[in-house]
Amino acid sequence: MSETARNTIAVFASDMFVVTDGVAEGEGVSFMDELVLDDVYQLTADTPRKALTYEKGDGSGFVIASDTEIGTPGNLLYLDCAVTLIAPDSTTYEALILVEVEGDEAAEVYLMPLGTLKEEYDYRLVGADREAAAAKFGDVACVRFARGTHITLASGAQVPIEDLKIGDRVLTRDAGSQEIRWIGETTLRAVGDYAPVVITEGALFNTRDLMLSPDHRLFIYQREDKLGAGRSEVLVKVRHLINGDTVYRRDGGFYDFFQILFDDHQIIYAEGIAAETLLVDARTRAALPEEAGATEHMYAPHRDFEVTESLANRPDIVSLLKKASSS
Asked: What are phi and psi of 71, to 5 degrees?
């Protein structure tokens, strides 16, 4: 694999989110210059999100990767704007619009909701903002640990994440003892892509329940390659581990979350199992404050260990990985 890591987002194609009342009636969602405020949209029935896989391009955009589920590999992908939608019950929702470009023409437009949209339900477009798009796009990818998560220090001590300080030395898998450069704290409403995933105690040999952001990746060493990844070392996004039982999404309410930043992207130990820290790249950099010193991280070999969604998409993946790491 090249030194350009792939990322995957879950999106709807333009014809899946269509204007049912308004100026653009009958048309799918489009880029900002063609959007009309007060148009009412509906998500068509039986249209699950598709996996759009991309990698960093040479300029300001991205390139659609070869293993994508939707989109044309090799085409450019640009983040266009953030939109605000309001439902009949006055609940507001945010979403991002991305545009796939082939040559000089827009080939497709994608909607990436930041909350859970219902099928055949009215959503009125009340705002569109280009300036906020990059920060919101990056924020979703900024991995977080929930308050109370115990992190292993270089000394072996287990410390709740909220008690860590800049300069504390943490045990990392690949680089031994490393100093924390920056710690971020935020309170988030647990909806959509911000609803955390709970890995219950013991599900993957974790010593307590572990609550992480959905795109957080766990490092797992397979003593036997039961996953069929072709290697023993794998990174798996926790959203791909959800089985509704031992690993589940916790929707609703507000939770405190923390980000840990090192000079390089690291694998550390949270509740006794290996999990990644914040990765600064072309996407996440825009979401970080100046005090984070958000210089893009150098390429790290462990980033090649991520398994594809198609490989991870199996109902028994949690028990399979637990067995693989213990056999």
From this structure: 95, 165
Report the C-alpha gap between 28 and 210 in whole angstroms.
39
Sign of the alpha-carbon dihedral angle for 269, 244, 68, 100: negative
Q: How many CA atoms lie within 13 A of 256 on its CB side?
A: 9
* Tens digits of residue pLDDT in 243-301: 999 999 998 889 999 999 999 999 999 999 999 999 998 889 888 988 888 788 888 88
Relative to beta strand 50-56, strand 62-64 is antiparallel
Tokens found for residue 128: 């569109």
CA dist., res. 241 & res. 317, Å (int): 6
Q: How far, in Å, CA of 249 to CA of 272, rounded?
A: 21
DSSP string, 262-320: -SS--EEEETTEEEE----STTGGGGS-GGG--PPPPP-GGGGGBPPHHHH--TTHHHH
Q: What is the pTM of this model?
A: 0.84
Output the six-digit token pair for 190.
Answer: 């647990």
Tokens of 196: 């955390």
